[in-house]
């Protein structure tokens, strides 16, 4: 494989590759009878922009837990060498959901500490589980999330000495358990909920209870135009998007139209030619 030596700084170029990855993901799901929906900001982009939000730099999809597990196995068995699935329990992986990535790319998450920050350019694949009867598990889940972030992110405050000392003390306590244990607990908390629940919840997307959807709403899907491809999304998207964004059809002011992630991207010459030069 070629070395990943071409840096992609242009957002539009990154988006072109992401949209191609999403199109490939869609085709794999269609060929293997796997259900998915676009979610969150990607759903918003499809409704408001007919494609990726112009200032966004990631793509989110969700899958029922059973299909999610099948998809992970499928990519590892049939698509090894071209695509990769980053997921638990991979070494140095810190997220309770999967990332479907493109071999021949290197994505470095600058806010995350090494060795947890090196991935491929990817789309986020979130599992859906039954909504918990006991909502207190959200707090336990969030405690695990805070522990993982504290151990793996570059978030140490520099000005407030007392706060820094407190966070360092917490970090030492968390390190005794290790990131893997907190991650395992997160996955167990939601994956153990019955799939036949009236509501389902997307695990790991950061929306918490606001991401709850009626099961019948989730499975009533239609195809949406998304740039030059078509993707599956929920037909009745209004309640979903209002829960997440409020007045979702009104774009944010110009000063807030920034991509939310801080990362560096390098691709091989082969990927550059296949995904960028050939698409021109």
SS strand fraction: 15-25%
Largest sheet descriptor: 7 strands, mixed
Name the overall outline.
Answer: globular
What is the average of the pLDDT values? 89
Helix/strand-derived category reads alpha+beta
What low-confidence regions span 5 or more consecutive residues with pLDDT below 50?
A: none
State the share of residues found in helices, binned by percent: 40-55%
What is the rounded distance between the termini? 23 Å
Give the helix tally.
9
Radius of gyration: 19 Å
Description:
By secondary structure, the protein is an alpha+beta fold. Helix content is 40%, strand content 21%. The protein contains nine helices and 13 strands. It has helices at residues 11-31, 40-49, 65-78, 137-152, 161-177, 179-191, 215-219, 238-245, 269-277, and strands at 4-7, 37-38, 60-64, 83-86, 98-102, 105-109, 118-119, 122-130, 199-202, 213-214, 221-226, 229-234, 263-268. A hairpin with a 2-residue loop joins strand 11 and strand 12 (229-234). The longest helix is centred in the N-terminal third of the chain and has 21 residues, at 11-31. It is globular and about 50 Å long.
